[in-house]
């Protein structure tokens, strides 16, 4: 049972940081950026490059995160700002183009073979009957710390209040003297940096590979949409929900139902389960579970 | 070289039919369908599965079109309450679910190996003629469907869905049932695309999960955006340009000495770059849609 909770928690940390950034930025720019998950893939490769060039792991992660943030910021200033003049649909198609370019760039430079981090082998920590590797433990702790500090920032500081004001009513916020441009750029940088860090930490256990972003696309979007796009805290709740479903689906024994000893769903259907939840949610709650009511400041 | 040209024209024609199908939805109707390739995949798989069960090819094609139209109805109904961007993500999810199923239900789809040895349409003809006949069939279908799609776009239905795209509230005031319009738009695009999927399976003699990759949908979107979304001639121009890029990549690979990883990256990158350049520099495409000032 403990293992079940730990598995859920680990999967939540995989998704939460990236979904959080996606949702946060959606609140300000009002289009779902399909390329967002590819920032995580870039972060993974940048961290790998830094680490294999000799940087200590923490420094490589920090550097990858900052660089991904800068890439995100540059794309926002040079590309998305202009695309948004044509409306959210154009910006969304543009984000497809950016996603293709990022994948093509990384594939051209690094190839399609997965790059594994060379980490010293460590014994898993045993908690009760459950096991968790020190890397995963560090990943979990970092994510939790980031999420908590982010919620603090959003609800306890002036900058956070400005961000929420701008997301809920941009015209009024600008009329009140908020510098919309600066806030948007700051949020863009943060969301990219957080996605890059999330991807880099994910790659510590799975390796950096070009499908990393693509594999995250649907679960991350499912989490962000479940939480109501534009609601960062909802995105984290959505990530938890998706992780919970995926873990339940892998642990559930259908044996008694079909009269067999043991029968599990094929692992490949885990992904399909989260998309199915997404579709069901959209069918009954078109703006996600925590959509409309949290938009107020 | 001759074989390569026939192949290129046939595949180009098949992509043109898929793009025409997407254009009905995205161009005329303004619906952001990011899972369009699912319809083509259904067409391809239906043809393959029907052949494996010993059915004649036309029955498989008809089955594919019927199934795709039914899926189109479901997806259209899903659009009842969703905002455009949420719907786009939902269509992407539908296509991915289908791909997962195709990849895992070995008994039906052959899993990752797909269904091979699907016979071409003109197997009993001598060597160059079978391919030429198939090419002529495909190009004839492109011409017919392009004409039909242009007629559809200018007819009552086309004007209604354009109005829905531009002024949904006005369309509702004029008594159009927007939900029914949306659903019918998706369904008609789906049927056309399933036909193209069947032809693709017959050309390749194969149906597999690669037919359902999301990247293929994005290629179709690029064709539309580059050529001119909402205008039949524009769509066809986009198909020609993108196919030219695809045909050029193997030559570039040999000239530059790229491995297949780099060649794949080059192809993806060029499509991305073309799409982005087009969105930034000429948003309405090379041949823009002509909208009448007053109807």
From TrEMBL, chain A:
InterPro entries named among the record's database cross-references: ABC_transp_permease, BCAA_transport_permease
The biological processes this protein is annotated with in GO are: amino acid transport
Q: Which residues cross the membrane?
A: 12-29, 55-75, 87-113, 133-155, 183-204, 216-244, 264-284
**Bilayer disposition of the protein:** Multi-pass membrane protein
Q: Give a GO molecular function annotation for the protein.
A: transmembrane transporter activity
Q: Which GO terms describe its cellular component?
A: plasma membrane
Which keywords belong to this entry? Amino-acid transport, Cell membrane, Membrane, Transmembrane, Transmembrane helix, Transport
Where is this gene product found? Answer: Cell membrane
What Pfam families does UniProt report for this protein, alphabetically? BPD_transp_2
The organism's place on the tree of life at top rank: Bacteria
PANTHER family, sorted: BRANCHED-CHAIN AMINO ACID TRANSPORT PERMEASE PROTEIN LIVH-RELATED, BRANCHED-CHAIN AMINO ACID TRANSPORT SYSTEM PERMEASE PROTEIN LIVH
Family per UniProt?
A: Belongs to the binding-protein-dependent transport system permease family. LivHM subfamily.
Which named protein is this?
Inner-membrane translocator
Automatic annotation (TrEMBL), chain B:
Q: Mention any one GO cellular component term assigned to this protein in its UniProt record.
A: plasma membrane
> Which superkingdom is the protein from?
Bacteria
* Classification via InterPro entries: ABC_transp_permease, LivM-like
Where this protein primarily resides, as one coarse class? membrane
Cross-referenced Pfam families: BPD_transp_2
- Coiled-coil stretches, from where to where? none
The residues that cross the membrane are 6-24, 31-51, 57-76, 132-150, 218-244, 264-282
The membrane topology term of the UniProt record is: Multi-pass membrane protein
GO MF terms here are: branched-chain amino acid transmembrane transporter activity
Q: Which UniProt keywords apply?
A: Cell membrane, Membrane, Transmembrane, Transmembrane helix
Where does this protein reside within or beyond the cell? Cell membrane
In Swiss-Prot or TrEMBL terms, this protein is called Inner-membrane translocator
């Amino acid at each position: 049972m403990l293992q079940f909770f730990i598995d859920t928690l680990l999967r939540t940390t995989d998704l939460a940081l990236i979904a959080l950034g996606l949702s946060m930025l959606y609140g300000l720019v009002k289009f779902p950026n399909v390329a967002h998950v590819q920032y995580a893939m870039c972060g993974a490769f940048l961290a790998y490059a830094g680490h294999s060039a000799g940087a200590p792991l923490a420094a490589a992660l920090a550097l990858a995160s900052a660089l991904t943030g800068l890439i995100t910021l540059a794309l926002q200033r040079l590309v998305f700002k202009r695309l948004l003049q044509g409306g959210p649909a154009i910006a969304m198609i543009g984000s497809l183009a950016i996603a293709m370019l990022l994948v093509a760039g990384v594939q051209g430079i690094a190839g399609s073979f997965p790059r594994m981090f060379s980490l010293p082998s460590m014994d898993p920590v045993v908690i009760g009957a459950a096991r968790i590797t020190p890397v995963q433990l560090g990943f979990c702790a970092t994510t939790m710390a980031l999420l908590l500090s982010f919620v603090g920032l959003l609800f306890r500081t002036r900058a956070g209040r400005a961000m929420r004001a701008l997301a809920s009513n941009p015209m009024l916020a600008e009329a009140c003297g908020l510098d919309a441009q600066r806030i948007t750029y700051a949020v863009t940088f943060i969301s990219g940096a957080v996605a890059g860090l999330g991807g880099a930490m994910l790659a510590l256990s799975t390796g950096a590979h070009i499908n990393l972003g693509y594999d995250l696309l649907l679960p991350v979007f499912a989490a962000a949409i479940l939480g109501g796009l534009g609601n960062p805290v909802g995105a984290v709740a959505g990530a938890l929900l998706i992780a919970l479903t995926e873990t339940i689906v892998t642990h559930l024994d259908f044996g008694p139902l079909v009269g067999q000893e043991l029968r599990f769903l094929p692992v490949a259907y885990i992904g399909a389960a989260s998309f199915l939840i997404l579709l069901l949610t959209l069918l009954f709650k078109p703006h996600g579970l925590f959509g409309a009511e949290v938009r107020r400041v | 070289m001759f074989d390569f040209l026939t192949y290129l024209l046939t595949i180009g024609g098949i992509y043109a039919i898929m793009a025409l199908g997407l254009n009905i939805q995205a161009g005329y109707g303004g619906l952001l369908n990011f899972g369009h390739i699912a319809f083509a995949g259904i067409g391809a798989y239906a043809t393959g599965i029907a052949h494996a069960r010993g059915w004649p090819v036309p029955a498989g094609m008809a089955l594919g079109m019927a199934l795709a139209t039914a899926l189109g109805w479901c997806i259209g109904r899903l659009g009842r309450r969703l905002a455009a961007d949420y719907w786009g993500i939902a269509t992407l999810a539908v296509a991915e679910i289908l791909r997962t199923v195709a990849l895992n239900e070995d008994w039906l789809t052959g899993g990752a190996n797909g269904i091979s040895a699907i016979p071409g349409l003109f197997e009993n003809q001598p060597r160059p003629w079978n391919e030429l006949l198939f090419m002529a069939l495909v190009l004839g279908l492109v011409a017919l469907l392009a004409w039909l799609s242009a007629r559809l776009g200018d007819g009552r239905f086309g004007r209604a869905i354009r109005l829905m795209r531009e002024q949904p509230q006005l369309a509702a005031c004029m008594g159009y049932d927007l939900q029914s319009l949306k659903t019918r738009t998706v369904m008609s695009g789906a049927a056309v695309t399933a036909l193209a999927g069947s032809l693709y399976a017959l050309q390749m003699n194969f149906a597999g999960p690669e037919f359902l990759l999301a990247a293929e949908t994005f290629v179709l979107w690029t064709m539309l955006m580059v050529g001119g979304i909402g205008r039949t001639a524009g769509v066809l121009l986009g198909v020609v340009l993108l196919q030219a890029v695809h045909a050029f990549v193997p030559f570039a690979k040999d000239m530059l000495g790229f491995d297949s990883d780099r060649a794949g990256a080059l192809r993806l990158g060029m499509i991305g770059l073309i799409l982005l350049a087009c969105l930034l520099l000429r948003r309405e495409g090379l041949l823009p849609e002509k909208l009448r000032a007053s109807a």
